[in-house]
Design a protein that fits this description.
The complex is a heterodimer of chains A (78) and B (29).
Chain A: H1 2-17, E1 25-26, H2 27-32, H3 41-51, E2 58-59, H4 61-73
Antiparallel strand pairs in A: 1-2
Chain B: H1 2-26
The chains are: A mainly alpha (78), B mainly alpha (29).
Chain lengths: 78, 29
């Protein structure tokens, strides 16, 4: 279904950011994408802050996927 | 509402980020 395709993409993208497979993404992991994605360090910082909804400095798969589904389907559909 | 403005700006950044990831996976080899 569409839903599982989105879940699969979410995991894929999460793993791109979580290079070491820690199970979470840190600010530093995000900055490592600087060379791979056409985003500035500041933009990546912004992305991290936006996704880190509880502000604890760690992005979990759950936080990441709610950000992704917001991007896919708009706010409020999680 | 300044919060709405901030949310919209962040949405743009997120869209940019996820679009980049999407094109990274599906883009040119």
């Amino acid at each position: 279904s569409d839903c599982s395709a989105v879940l699969e993409k979410t995991r894929e993208f999460f793993q791109i950011c979580d290079i070491e497979g820690k199970g979470f993404i840190t600010r530093r992991d995000m900055q490592r994408l600087n060379g791979e994605l056409p985003l500035s360090a500041e933009e990546l910082e912004n992305v991290f802050d936006t996704l880190d909804t509880d502000g604890n400095g760690y992005l979990t798969l759950e936080e990441f996927s709610s950000g992704f589904s917001e991007f896919m389907f708009g706010p409020g559909v999680v | 509402d300044p919060n709405m403005k901030g949310a919209a700006a962040n949405e743009g950044v997120l869209a940019n980020f996820f679009n980049s990831l999407l094109s990274k996976k599906t883009g040119a080899p």
